[in-house]
Structures are given as structure tokens and as C-alpha cells.
Amino acid sequence: MTQIVYFSTKSGNTRRLVEKLQRDAKRIPFESGEPLPVTTEPYVLIFPTYGGGEVKGAVPKPVIHFLNDERNRRHLRGVVGAGNTNFGTAYCLGAHIVARKCQVPLLHCFELLGTPEDVAILHQELDRV
């Protein structure tokens, strides 16, 4: 079963969606002083877009630091983005950037803390990966 690695802000929206999935998950810490997880098996990365619609800053710094470790990039199998459709074309921009840069599929995007339909789609995508 594909593992989940996720980053969630203090609002906890992404964390709440991950909890609804009821799957093995590791959290990338919000605070920079905490150690970053290291993956040893295939995983899907879930995180929200930052930056208020700007390309610069769209990928949260903790996610960048996590992916700077080659061991973590090696096991990445797909990306799921969280965002807000109010940002228009920048909706889930961070996930698009990571998927393109790491050459993995963008599996799904969801708004805020997701819907039951998002959870069903993610179960299908996680099973497929």
C-alpha cells in the first residue's frame, strides 16, 4: 500500500483530509527545528499551495527541504495538491510545480479540507499508484 507524506499548515486542513483517508502517513513538520522524515518506500506527497497566487513561494519551504533529500525524491510516486479556487490559475500551483520538477503525476487537487468525493478519488489514486 502506498504511503502518504504530507505537509499541513497550522489551519490543519490538509491534515484533516489525510486523517479521513485512514492510511499510513508521515507529516513534514511545520516548525523548521523538527527533523524531516526520510522515506524508505513509495509514497504520495500531499501539500497546500502557498504564496497567494505567485509562483515564487508556491511550494512551502518545508516541502522543498524534504524533497532536497535525494532519498525522499527517489520514492516519490505522485503529488496531490490542496488549494483555494479563489486563486484562479494558481489553484494548487505548488503541486503542479513539484510534479513537473520531480517528473511524477499530479494525481488530484482538492479545495481546503476536501469533500467525500475527494476522499473517494484519492483512495482510487492511492490504490492505483
TrEMBL record:
Pfam family, one: Flavodoxin_NdrI
Domain of life, source organism: Bacteria
Entry GO MF terms: FMN binding
Gene3D superfamilies to which the protein is assigned, alphabetical: 3.40.50.360
InterPro entries xrefs: Flavoprotein-like_sf, RNR_Ib_NrdI_bac, RNR_NrdI
Cited function: Probably involved in ribonucleotide reductase function.
Family affiliation: Belongs to the NrdI family.
Name of the protein this chain belongs to: Protein NrdI
Gene: nrdI
